[in-house]
Amino acid sequence: MRTITTKLTRIYLIVAVSVLFCTGLISLLYFYNHVRAIAHDNLNTQAVAMAGNLESPVAFRDVAFAQQTLKALQHYPDVRMAAVVMADGKYFAKYSPDTDTDIDSLQQFPLQGEFITVNTHGVVQDITFPGKTPARLVVVASLEQINRKMVLVVGMSIAIGGLILLVAFIMFRHMSRLVTRPIEDLTAIMRKVERDGDHSQRVRIFSDDEIGELAKGFNAMLSVLERQNTSLNTELDERKSIQRKLDRLAHYDTVTRLPNRHYFQERLLIAVEHNIRLSKLMAVLFVDLDNFKLVNDSYGHHTGDHLLRIAAERLSSSLRAGDVVCRLGGDEFAIILEHLSDSQQIETIVDKLIQNLSQPLRLDDHDVVVTGSVGVAVCPQDADNPESLLRFADAAMYAAKAAGKNTWRRFDPEMASQPALRLSLENQLRVALAERQFEVHYQPQINMNTDAVDGFEALARWNHPDHGYISPLQFIPVAEECGLIRPLGEWVLRTACRQIVAWSLDGHERLKVAVNVSVRQLVHPHFVEQVLAILAETGCAAHQLDLEITESILMQYSDKTFSLLQRLRDHGIGIVIDDFGTGYSSMAQLKNMPVTKLKIDKSFVDDITTSHSDLAITATIASLARNLRIQIIAEGVESNQQVLLLRQSGCHAFQGYHFAQPLLATQIPKFIDGFHHRQQALRSLSADGNVKLAGWEAWLALPARKPGYLNC
Ligand code: C2E
Ligand code: CA
Ligand code: CA
């Protein structure tokens, strides 16, 4: 690019050189002509004077005198030759400063008037005298000296002209900087702005001429741009930060700060492709917190959120670096385990995870135990695509819930329809309640000390029109989660109370009924009032009713439930701790609890025949209960041997298939009569020492009815 300076310099040079050349040329030409004219005039003057002096010699034909007169020309070095030419053309006298000049060469000049060539000029002057033909004086002079001087003058003029040009150029350059510098500055700033995008640059104002105006305008434009840029940048920053927040929201959960479902799905897709490509084993874990909703409902969302954060930390700390844990929503978490060596490794990780999760914790002044149920689906064995893996892990998690929570299950193809069933279960539960598809079955509780049927545990049954009986293990957790447990529990309680009153009217006044109470019912603010209202409504005596609450729940919510249990107790209602032995209750807690009965969990009863420690524990529980004046009963009793060992341990009340499965209400009178008769028979037989405590079902001639739940 040609700069303005270059252009100006060019213009300057063209103009200056042209002007200088033209003026110099004109001046020199003029000067040259002038000098030549002077020389010519001088020559002419001399010729005139000499012609006058020659009149006499010519008139008297005095050649010598004429020659002498001509010789006076030697004082004029420019004169090359001179001659007096007569009218007939003959030379009368002639003069030449040097001898080798050929005077005849005069012939080449016009011998009249005057003439001037490049190097020579001459004049012809008539020599007159009266009455005679005039002769002529011819004087020829050289112009060479003038020419030489002229060359010198031209040379000097060029030198001076050059010098002037140079000085003028320097001055021009200096002065042109006044114009070009602001423009250069402007250009430099413009380039900088263009290159760096830095609108804070400003041009220095040198003058208030047009360039100054231009610079001011440029600066003003930069200010506007800078302001716009600043606001644009601020807006951009805001947008970016909003975008970041949106991204975070889109990918992270705000409560636990764990990645969310969206992120999980993206990550799972990558993990599946990666692990399949490398032929590696990977697993998806679906974790659902047990009883989270309960904590949320009981202690509020703040505590619920706190719990979720702790659960998230516990899950994260149970995993290896690189494993991904996300919150899918609610109390559901999902985990991706990659690069696994074998299934054993999954087992180790999941065991650790469940163990960590179930550690008791203090949450906003409440002691809480929150466990987790985990479903595991392994890629590629169980599925090789993200959707199926997550769905299968979900199904396995429900299987873990159904297996009693706080445990894990690996996916089994039979579980495939579980989540779908669960969804429809929720809807169907509502229909079932409205259409009275529920039943209450009664499982007898036998007291070996009194040889009598003490009472029954009321167990809910869902007699589904299409699927037959569905296990409460399936529908109670769903009812608890969707809140239907309250109307359902109320219905079971009302039905059981009504039933016990009916049996009382039939002559079985001493019978009691134990009704399971879900913790979601228990924490309802009007639970006590509801129970009392049902007792009043059905006419059931308070002492005929036991409420069963599982040990783990009771201990967890002891601070919340203590007073209401006390109120129930004050009204004469029995309080049974269900599944006792699984909830880690302390002696001190138990002592302060308004409890009337402990129900030894089936898991102890199951192992009592093989495990000495379980036997010892049962004995300890029995003696503890005796000391605290709390009754005990063993559940899940399936064999005569268990009965014997339990009795040795100090437990005399039993419930279990060994005696009877849960029965329809209509079967109960027959069972009671049968039991009564059998005991009488046994007593008489025992006198003969011929007792066989086996074959109850056959003996009572009752149908050996297994629950027959839908296996789903
Ligand atoms: P649970 O309270 O521990 O009830 C005892 C369960 O063990 C019953 O299962 C019963 O049928 C079963 N069982 C009794 N004796 C034996 C035995 O000798 N061997 C074996 N293998 N099982 C025996 P069910 O009826 O399926 O009930 C399961 C659970 O559902 C109950 O456990 C209880 O937690 C819950 N549940 C049942 N009805 C209700 C209800 O009306 N309300 C609430 N909240 N929960 C209920
Ligand atoms: Ca129970
Ligand atoms: Ca139980």
Summarize the topology.
Layout: H1 4-59, H2 63-71, E1 79-85, E2 91-95, E3 114-116, E4 120-127, E5 135-142, H3 144-196, H4 210-251, H5 261-277, E6 281-289, H6 292-299, H7 301-318, E7 324-329, E8 332-340, H8 343-357, E9 361-363, E10 366-368, E11 372-379, H9 386-402, E12 408-410, H10 418-434, E13 438-447, E14 452-464, E15 468-470, H11 472-482, H12 485-505, E16 512-516, H13 519-522, H14 527-538, E17 545-550, H15 551-556, H16 558-570, E18 574-580, H17 587-592, E19 597-600, H18 602-607, H19 612-627, E20 631-635, H20 640-649, E21 653-655, H21 668-687, H22 696-700
Parallel strand pairs: 11-12, 14-16, 16-17, 17-18, 18-19, 19-20, 20-21
Antiparallel strand pairs: 1-2, 1-5, 3-4, 4-5, 6-8, 6-11, 7-8, 9-10, 13-14, 13-21, 14-15
Helix pairs in contact: 1-2, 1-3, 3-4, 6-7, 7-8, 10-11, 12-14, 14-16, 19-20
